[in-house]
TrEMBL record:
It comes from Actinorhabdospora filicis. Keywords: Kinase, Transferase. Gene3D superfamilies: 3.30.420.40, Winged helix-like DNA-binding domain superfamily/Winged helix DNA-binding domain (1.10.10.10). Transmembrane segments: none annotated. Belongs to the ROK (NagC/XylR) family. This is Sugar kinase. It comes from the Bacteria. InterPro entries: ATPase_NBD, ROK, ROK_cs, WH-like_DNA-bd_sf, WH_DNA-bd_sf. SUPFAM superfamilies: Actin-like ATPase domain, Winged helix' DNA-binding domain. One of its GO terms (molecular function) is kinase activity.
């Protein structure tokens, strides 16, 4: 169990101002010990008083809250995008920036750009100093060491000291995780899985990954690479994956593979919608497939259903193994919507045992594009709270 001060600060983050009596009840802590801890955190400037609480009979208690000046930085780095937010202690957004990014340019240009965005936020008055930084990256991460490890789509990032660099640059605790884990953490904090302890969060985008949340905690495995389902082989005769293996799920169905299949269909004249888009723009993307599907284009619908079938097959195995309470689908290709979702559901329900699927919702992410930065902010605050004076 985390130390008392960590649990106390998380409660104030998640529930807002609470009275001393409410904190004692929720933390199941003797009142003298709690009061001593509150006095210490007040003296350190981590929390502050927030006026009188509602009466519970007798003299009214004083509410306490996280200090209004507390600030965290949340960074969600994708293969082609960068989202940076500054939040307060309640993880409410104070400043936000989103822009295209190319992960292949390497860590130094990307981290320098993050620094420029945070410097802009500081100049605009979003913060004086940061209490914690959280970051997600699109590849395997040693959570213990705070470094990417042999990430297939991140050339130049292998073993780069991302966490230590952030901590040094901003003078505060920092934490680095892979992007699907931070999305799962974000969904647990403020999305559809708020009250769900056992769930799988499946990110379908440039790559495919799975955040495994069991017994109320993220399960990362011994070295931090649990949930890397994008590199499970689904077709022994399939295309070569970015990892160097053959027929991985990610090579068969992802943003890049869907765009590749769509281009073939457009050139072959199999899809009027895709052929028209190719003629107009010179290329086709996964977004074009989504648009074509909504217009009833048979080829686009078939491409999406085939992808859903492949993902559903992998998830059916995971359902039989882990018996989650919910599966959440997120990431850029979640915009393919209910055609994709229906196919995933169909395969999972058909190929898993009835006991495992009798009460198993398979749903789209409630937070959508904000799941990543939300989870990064949660991790940043957790890191800060663990080291709070």
């Amino acid at each position: 169990m985390p130390p008392l001060h960590t649990r106390l600060l998380r409660l104030l983050r998640d529930l807002g101002p609470l009275s001393r009596a409410e904190l004692a009840d929720r933390l199941e802590t003797p009142r003298p010990r709690l009061l001593a801890e509150l006095d210490r955190l007040l003296a350190a400037g981590t929390i502050s008083e927030a006026g009188p609480a509602a009466s519970r009979g007798g003299r009214r208690s004083t509410l306490v809250e996280l200090h209004p000046g507390l600030r965290f930085a949340a960074i969600d780095l994708g293969a082609s995008s960068l989202d940076v937010e500054v939040t307060n202690g309640r993880l409410e957004t104070i400043a936000a920036y989103s822009e295209p990014a190319d992960i292949r340019t390497g860590p130094r240009p990307i981290l320098a750009r993050i620094g420029e965005l945070l410097a802009k936020a500081r100049a605009d008055g979003a913060f004086d100093r940061l209490a914690g930084v959280g970051m997600g990256v699109p590849g395997p991460v040693s959570f213990r060491d705070g470094v990417p490890v042999s990430p297939p789509i991140m050339p130049g990032w292998d073993r780069h000291p991302v966490r230590d660099t952030l901590s040094r640059d901003y003078g505060c605790p920092a934490v680095v995780d892979n992007d699907v884990n931070i999305m799962a953490i974000g969904e647990r904090h403020g999305g559809v899985t708020r009250s769900v302890d056992d769930f799988l969060f499946v990110k379908i985008g440039t790559g495919i990954g799975c955040g495994v949340h069991l017994a109320g905690e993220m399960y990362r495995g011994k070295d931090g690479c649990a949930g890397d389902i994008g590199h499970i082989q689904v077709d022994a005769q399939g295309p070569v994956c970015s990892c160097g293996n053959i027929g991985c799920l990610e090579a068969v169905f992802s943003g890049a593979s869907l765009a590749r299949e769509a281009l073939v269909a457009a050139k072959a004249g199999e899809s009027p919608v895709l052929a028209e888009r190719l003629a107009a723009a010179g290329t086709v993307t996964a977004v074009d497939v989504a648009v074509g599907a909504t217009e009833g284009d048979v080829t686009c619908i078939t491409l999406i259903r085939e992808g859903g079938r492949q993902i559903g097959g992998v998830l059916a195995g995971l359902v039989s193994f882990a018996n989650p309470s919910m599966i959440v689908i997120g990431g850029g290709l979640a915009q393919l919507g209910h055609i994709l979702l229906a196919e995933i559901r169909s395969v999972v329900y058909r190929r898993s045992l009835p006991l495992a699927t009798g009460n198993l919702p398979v749903v789209l992410s409630e937070l959508g594009a904000r799941a990543g930065v939300t989870g990064a902010a949660v991790l940043a605050s957790d890191a800060a709270f663990e080291q709070a004076p």
